[in-house]
Amino acid sequence: xxxxxxxxxxxxxxxxxxxxxxxxxxxxxxxxxxxxxxxxxxxxxxxxxxxxxxxxxxxxxxxxxxxxxxxxxxxxxxxxxxxxxxxxxxxxxxxxxxxxxxxxxxxxxxxxxxxxxxxxxxxxxxxxxxxxxxxxxxxxxxxxxxxxxxxxxxxxxxxxxxxxxxxxxxxxxxxxxxxxxxxxxxxxxxxxxxxxxxxxxxxxxxxxxxxxxxxxxxxxxxxxxxxxxxxxxxxxxxxxxxxxxxxxxxxxxxxxxxxxxxxxxxxxxxxxxxxxxxxxxxxxxxxxxxxxxxxxxxxxxxxxxxxxxxxxxxxxxxxxxxxxxxxxxxxxxxxxxxxxxxxxxxxxxxxxxxxxxxxxxxxxxxxxxxxxxxxxxxxxxxxxxxxxxxxxxxxxxxxxxxxxxxxxxxxxxxxxxxxxxxxxxxxxxxxxxxxxxxxxxxxxxxxxxxxxxxxxxxxxxxxxxxxxxxxxxxxxxxxxxxxxxxxxxxxxxxxxxxxxxxxxxxxxxxxxxxxxxxxxxxxxxxxxxxxxxxxxxxxxxxxxxxxxxxxxxxxxxxxxxxxxxxxxx
Length: 569
Fold this sequence. Notes:
mainly beta, disordered C terminus
């Protein structure tokens, strides 16, 4: 049945995933096929420039490029994304998830009707995009023919002629890159040839340059409806594939939908150290909605609805974009000759998008991200990734979009647009680039007067900075406008234990207000007391920050060498 129900790989849910291996008939770049009938094959066309393939050898005629530039590898000293990051809170402090905004500067997509699988950057500031597209031209009476294309660009406005990879029977795909080694992994989902199966098989390919692909000796089978949602490299587990699957509920849903009243779509995780043999992490439980969610909320819409990535940049914890949905009720069509169940509220059964939400991995989740307990959802039922713009003066992302790839992470020094205020993370959706300032998946917002303390961190040799949004609602703050001047942030430094501020670093000497709209943050500086000496240097010392704020959001504290631009105060 089309219900994605198989108990496999030790998961404590009923998952339609099982390990499977095929004999490899032919290795090489231009044609790769697998056994058991009409298997998968990769054909490469339209190769151009320095990445042209040598058909005689099946390898690149030039050495592969270096791994992509990871020019944002230094994480902030303290990330302030959830209440778990702070202590000793006094007052009402709320986690606030950020929204994506269209990136200004005329950035374009190579194909507005494509699904982006991967976006990266090389050390020479060349951008790389992999997309899933419909092949053209295509006969109207044929089933859709999908191909994977690789584009290069120096400015995200114009693109070189693409390299096209044709995989026979391609239905869906996922692609990721390990920035530590430069290795790519491609999961290609093609029709299963197993007897009695109506699902797919995931055929896996590896590459060191994105051009010469070599099929592995393994893969896995996927029942109908259990598509891949996200793919990521992991320093301990190799590759992780986040799969949409079905879970049987203990209590039926009040209103049946397209999968009935006893099932809901959730996310499971498979791991592979070599891209060939896949199994569940142990222990492993599904990623599921929480007790405060609507009971029919489901994860992983469209097969690309749970996209994991390392956050903050530098890989200190995992984050993900979860695209959630609430299925439409299934109704009986009274005009049908039989009691055929149909979903008649909308032309599609599985949708529409209900929300897009940030998930954050816990410290335990870095070691094993394969359970709901490995993640926190600080912004549950509070925000969507579309809505109010996350960038001052910029419009918001459109409602109902679904992110399909991990972010392109770019330092401001190599940004192709002069209008972006900082280092950033960028996603491509239906021809439009959407962005978020670095470190700003979410922060801590104080509607009133609030005090809290950060974790212990080491004072850097360079200046400290704070990533915050503390803008006044008016450029003037006199008796006629003071109601719009609520925002302030005060910072003092404490030793690792005790609540007495370090001399010279009291809050009275550090008043951060009226951050300009074009700035992401500012240096933290302490003025000398009246008639006093400058505060003593603290570089190398362990401290905590005690932050006082109102009508402001704070995101992170870090050292100068981890900031995308140089501030001088």
